[in-house]
Fold:
Amino acid sequence: MAEDQIISISKFNKLKKSTSKKVTISAQNISVFYSGKMAIDNINMNINQNEVTALIGPSGCGKSTFIRCLNRMNDVIENCTIEGKIILNGTNIYNPEVDIVKLRTNIGMVFQKPNPFPKSIYDNIIYAPRLHGLVNKKSDSDELVEKSLIEAGLFNEVKDRLNDSGTSLSGGQQQRLCIARAIAVNPSVILMDEPCSSLDPIATAVIEQLIDSLKKKITIIIVTHNMQQAARVSEKTGFFHLGKLIEFSDTSTIFTNPKEKKTLGYITGRFG
Amino acid sequence: MSNIIKNDILIPISSKRAIKERLFKIFGLSAIIFSLSMLLILFTTIFSKGYSAFYQTRIKLDINFNEKLIDPIGTREIKTLTTADYSKLISQSLFKFLNIDKNHPKSSEIKSLISFNSFLILKDHVLSDPDIIGKTKKINLIASDDVDQMIKGNINLNISEENRKISDFQIEAINKLKSNGYILTVFNKTLFTKSDSREPESSGVLGAIIGSFYCLFVAVCISVPIGVSAAIFLQEFAKKNKITDFIEININNLAAVPSIVFGLLGLYVFINFFHLPRSSPIVGGLVLALMSLPTIVIVTRASLLAVPDTIRDGAVALGASKMQAIFNQVLPLATPGICTGVIIALARALGETAPLLMIGMIAFIPDTPIAITDPATALPAQIYMWADHPERAFVERTSAAILILLSFLIVMNAAAIYIRHKFEKNW
Structure:
């Protein structure tokens, strides 16, 4: 039964054949320790440009920790030490000379729980561009807000109430607002940490379509608990277990013909 | 089988726990009723004792601004006009109306019907308009506190004369004035436009209100910036270690320190060491600021803690620095909570008497303070002092001052509640 499901998913992904693409982010020997306790262990991973990379694995396996390394969100956490290198377009982002503001405008992030600021929809989107001085004139701001909302597929739903609070939207709309907010600063990569875990199936489908359309411009790395989602949206999938990257390859391979026993066990629901 | 279950459900739980629950509800309800009725009793007693202080008895007299008495030479020099014996004008007018010879043995009793300070009103009239000299004008003069109390019915006229504050002769005179419509009851403006006085009828709370206001102003200017920034640092930036734990414990302890200790601190540090003026609102404000600081720090930290971390993450992920995330996104969300806390801390400071005792703000100060370094008193201190006076008129003024203080406190607390409801955001 589980095998059947996998085959149907593989049919779905038939056309998503990965060819050799340009590597945007390269994680080299990344290990993370929280107060000396190892959270992830020696991860190596190359993430291709304009692809969706899914990270799956049971809770506490380190996939969120890993994704938070990619835009140095772990810097905020006390007693967190990171070893290894993350090369973004030829530069190690853990190089002390790296400007963390530029890094984070380049690598946006969307969180598990939609977290719009309790301000207007307009202010939610324009906050970061204003902060970084990307817009000066009111007309530029209006244009950027509209463009971001269109790209996030939210414009038609909210165009008449841009001054309403971002928190007045539904969960799925809030999450798309967060995506619009992230793409307003024109990032090349967006990290999504379980973006659909608090959404219903319809809102989830909308977000997945959005991911599909965004990847033409943006490289997306998505952490998900939902294996079907990983199969549906991603080109590459990495399976994490107990802080280790067990297997990382094309999504179709992971879901049809995994090399590791643990991967097979997880995707067929035998553990996790 | 199903029958048994059905029967089982039908057996009512008349057991102990149902009784316990009912008892608990009754207990809770009676606790609320008890506290509400105590509050009601408190308010009714204060109000019933204090409301009469909001109106005052005046005696309307035809005053003849006799030139011979005021300015016999006719030079209209300011010095002559200010030093003239205006009290004599009042007594002359009274004697004339009541048909009493000025050498009558009880003429001094008649003079004391009018408040001792009333000559100042006449002086003001003459100084502002010297042309009034030689003319006769109807002027409302403040009655003495004893007349006021008699008119308000607070003096028992049935007891013997020697046990009364007002003599039979005076009563006769008052009744004559009254029957001619010369006794008026008007709103007691004096209570709000004058400061403390030895004469109850010319005493007011203006100086105390201004003193309290200056104290609070100084307290806000000092405690809010320091308290809020300390809280932001402790909550958002400081690393959690033994030192910050120690600081946190001590802030909580400070919030519980009796306020008189802060008064002692103010006496030693601000007055004896820094030589700031004694009895001044600046010292009072500094002491109240120190007293409210721990509360403000605690409330601000709690408000910051209530802002979810996802907001911080969201801002940081967009490239905001930690400080930008806190000041742009977190602090606006915490502001309603901070405001509420600050207002409640200040409301407590407004009602505080003990620390003011130590720094000399509980003192008879008849002048209205102009600057924050002038000697001043505060509302609760004024209440405390008036409560000490034996005169009946001060009893009602004490209650009136309590009413004024309570209304300030109610306004402040209502503002706190309003801010909390109005600006509270949901996420």
Chain B touches chain A at residues 239-240, 308, 310-322, 324, 328-329, 333, 425-427 (CB under 8 Å). Strands of chain B lie at 55-64, 136-142, 183-187. The first strand of chain B starts at residue 55 and ends at 64.
